[in-house]
Amino acid sequence: MNDALTIAGKNYGSRLLVGTGKYRDFAQTRAALDASGAEIVTVAVRRVNIGQNADEPNLLDFLPPDRFTILPNTAGCFTAEEAVRTLRLARELLDGAALVKLEVLGDAASLYPNMPETLKAAETLVKDGFQVMVYCADDPIQARMLADLGCVAIMPLASLIGSGMGILNPWNLGLILERIDVPVIVDAGVGTASDATIAMELGCDGVLMNTAIALAKNPLRMANAMKLAVESGREAFLAGRMAKKTYVADPSSPRAGLIGS
């Protein structure tokens, strides 16, 4: 906890956030989360039962809220109204828990965020007492607007949800990191461990992923790999990399005392 991730005043030891979709069953979901070391777990309220369907298996039986921070999200919502209504339901189901993940999608093909609707929903939710972590485009201007509205974490996409394409625009992420004073967490597009490491080396505060773990050939092993990747990238960022030198070699060993010199 010497380098805790702090969101809405609460400290977390892990900087890896993990989703709960696409696993074989709830048992595999729990096993993967344990392997990842994640403490914050995001749940699509419109797709996964957390108590709204009494006659179906309840994810919370496998992921108890006293062990994990359950982060309800609005996956599948395409308007601000839908998103706000979904998160108000989630707050009731989770005994008043206020920390939520907002995402308002633009279309079903790309799942790219609809930023006007996202901003509208964020403003309503913050005024309603929610602590909003928000999925958004990698646009530094709109990211700043969301932070100014009171969102507790900004979550720009690395690439399209579920694409596994990794970080396509590190320069925009850098601009966001320069301008935002709340946690910046890469959300969407991570495909493998090196993608997570790059995000952390850039200075991001955390990484959220689902598909990269759930659809790996060995989800439990990939979950552990992602845990190590996030930790390694964070350590590299804190250590501070050496400066890049173009066309200049600098040998690791000293020149003095070379044989024959």
Structural key phrases:
261 residues; alpha/beta; five-stranded parallel beta sheet; 10 strands; 16% strand
Written account of the structure:
The chain has 261 residues and is of the alpha/beta class. 35% of the residues lie in helices and 16% in strands. It is built from 8 helices and 10 strands. It has helices spanning 26-36, 80-93, 115-127, 140-149, 170-179, 193-201, 211-214, 219-239, and strands spanning 5-7, 10-12, 16-19, 40-44, 69-73, 99-102, 131-136, 153-156, 185-187, 206-209. The strands form 3 sheets. It has a 5-stranded parallel sheet with strand order 5-4-3-10-9. α2 (80-93) runs parallel beside α3 and α4 (140-149) runs parallel beside α5 (170-179). The longest helix has 21 residues, at 219-239. The N and C termini lie far apart (51 Å). The model has no long low-confidence stretch (mean pLDDT 90).
Helices and strands in order, then pairings?
Elements: E1 5-7, E2 10-12, E3 16-19, H1 26-36, E4 40-44, E5 69-73, H2 80-93, E6 99-102, H3 115-127, E7 131-136, H4 140-149, E8 153-156, H5 170-179, E9 185-187, H6 193-201, E10 206-209, H7 211-214, H8 219-239
Parallel strand pairs: 3-4, 3-10, 4-5, 6-7, 7-8, 9-10
Antiparallel strand pairs: 1-2
Helix pairs in contact: 1-8, 2-3, 3-4, 4-5, 6-8
